[in-house]
Design goal:
Elements: E1 4-9, H1 14-26, E2 29-35, H2 41-44, E3 49-52, H3 58-67, E4 72-75, H4 81-86, H5 88-113, E5 117-124, H6 133-139, E6 141-142, H7 153-170, E7 184-191, E8 193-195, H8 208-217, E9 222-224, E10 234-236, H9 237-249, E11 259-261, H10 269-279, E12 285-287, H11 291-299, E13 303-304, H12 307-313, H13 321-339
Parallel strand pairs: 1-2, 1-4, 2-3, 4-5, 5-7, 6-13, 7-11, 8-10, 9-12
Helix pairs in contact: 1-9, 3-5, 5-7, 8-10
Bound molecules: 2-amino-3-ketobutyric acid.
C-alpha cells in the first residue's frame, strides 16, 4: 500500500487536534501539519512534518508544494465569527486570500502529479443569515440553498470560499485553449457549533456551549452571552471528525453536491445548562446576553436539513444531545481537569 501525504492547515485548532489523532490512528499516511503557532506536543508527535507558518505566505506554500506530493488537503485554518467581526480585514485576508492560496497549491499539485487532488473544506452554519427570530422559528430545518445571506464577515468569507472551491473544481481556466478538467475534487461540510472535551474554541460565537461546559468542570463561574432560549445546532467533536473523514472517502459518483449540511442536535442554551448542571450541580452560570453577539446567533438557523448527507454518504451522527454529554463530554472533561488539578 502506498503511503498517502495529507496537508492540514490550522492543524493546532480544535478540529485539527481531533483530525490528526484520527488520521494517525488510521495509519498509512504522512501528515504534514501547518499552523501559525507551534503544534501542541500531543499532536506534533503524530505528524510526519510540522510547519509553523502563515497560509498568507505563498512562498512558503509553494516551497511545501515542491517538497511533497499531496493526495488531499484539509484546509482548516480560519478566523472564527466573533474574532472576524473585530478584525474584518484580517479575517478576509486569512479566510479568503488564505483559502485562495491553498486552492492554487491544490491545482498546482494536480498539474504536477497529473491527477485529481482532494480538497476538504469545513464551512459553517454562519453562511446562513435569517433576518429575525420569527423567520428563524418559521424556517425550521434550513436546506443548503436557503437563506444564504450571512450577516458576518466570517459567514461571507465561508460562503465565498465554497464558491471558489466550486469554481476551481469546475471552471478553473475555462478560457484556456485546453481547459484542464477535474483538477481538484472539492468537498465541504457546513458545521454547526462544535463541542470538544479536549480543547476550547477561540473567537467563535457558538463558543457559549463549550465554554459553559469547561467552566463548570473547572468549577469557575460563567456568564453566558446569549439568552436562555437561544437555539442553534451543535455537534460533538468526534462526529465532526467522522463527517470530514466520511465525506472525504465517499465515492465521487455518489455525491450530488459539493457542500453539505451536517446536523446532530440543536438544544437551547438553557437545555445545555440543565444537562451540565446535572453533572456539575454547583455550576455557577448566569445568562447575560450581549445583544451584539446574540444578533449573530439569532441570524443562524435553529436546525439544518442534512438529508443530502444522509442519503449521499450515509451521514449519521453517533452522538445526540444526551449521549454527547453523558458518554463523551462530561467524563472526558472530568478526567481532563482532575488530571490538571484544576
Ligand atoms: C463560530 O462560532 O464562529 C464557529 C462556527 C459556527 O462556524 N464555531
Amino acid at each position: 500500500m502506498s503511503i498517502k501525504t495529507i496537508l492540514i492547515t490550522g492543524a493546532n485548532g480544535e478540529i485539527g487536534h481531533g483530525l490528526i489523532e484520527q488520521l494517525s490512528e488510521q495509519g498509512g499516511m504522512h501528515i504534514v501539519a501547518m499552523d501559525m503557532v507551534p503544534l501542541d506536543e500531543t499532536v506534533r508527535l503524530r505528524c510526519h512534518r510540522v510547519v509553523t507558518g502563515d497560509i498568507l505566505d505563498s512562498h512558503l506554500l509553494e516551497t511545501l508544494s515542491t517538497e511533497h506530493n499531496f493526495d488531499a488537503i484539509y484546509h482548516l485554518a480560519a478566523l472564527l465569527s466573533t474574532r472576524a467581526e473585530r478584525q474584518p480585514t484580517l479575517a478576509h485576508r486569512v479566510n479568503v486570500d488564505g483559502s485562495l492560496n491553498l486552492l492554487e497549491i491544490a491545482v498546482t499539485q494536480s498539474r504536477l502529479q497529473g491527477r485529481e487532488i482532494k480538497f476538504i473544506y469545513p464551512s459553517s452554519i454562519a453562511v446562513y443569515g435569517l433576518p429575525d427570530i420569527a423567520t428563524k422559528q418559521k424556517a425550521g430545518k434550513v436546506r443548503e440553498d436557503q437563506w444564504l445571506t450571512p450577516r458576518t464577515m466570517y459567514g461571507i468569507n465561508k460562503l465565498y470560499t465554497e464558491q471558489l472551491g466550486k469554481y476551481y473544481a469546475n471552471y478553473y481556466r475555462q478560457l484556456d485553449a485546453e481547459p484542464p478538467k477535474g483538477q481538484i475534487d472539492f468537498r465541504g461540510v457546513r458545521f454547526p457549533g462544535l463541542i470538544s472535551a479536549a480543547t476550547l474554541p477561540t473567537g467563535g460565537t457558538s463558543d457559549y456551549a463549550p465554554e459553559m461546559l469547561h467552566m463548570a468542570a473547572k468549577k469557575k463561574p460563567y456568564a453566558c452571552f446569549v439568552r436562555e432560549d437561544t437555539c442553534i445546532p451543535f455537534m460533538a467533536m468526534p462526529d465532526a471528525i467522522s463527517a470530514l473523514l466520511n465525506l472525504q472517502s465517499a465515492p465521487l459518483e455518489k455525491l450530488s453536491r459539493m457542500i453539505y449540511n451536517v446536523g446532530a442536535f440543536n438544544p437551547s442554551a438553557a437545555e445545555v445548562f440543565r444537562i451540565i448542571q446535572k453533572a456539575f450541580p454547583k455550576s455557577d452560570v448566569t445568562f447575560e446576553a450581549d445583544y451584539r453577539r446574540q444578533a449573530i446567533i439569532d441570524s443562524w438557523p435553529a436546525d439544518v436539513d442534512d438529508s443530502a448527507s444522509r442519503t449521499d454518504w450515509n451521514w449519521k451522527p453517533k452522538y445526540d444531545l444526551e449521549r454527547a454529554f453523558e458518554d463523551y463530554l462530561i467524563p472526558a472533561v472530568r478526567e481532563r481537569y482532575a488530571i490538571k488539578g484544576q
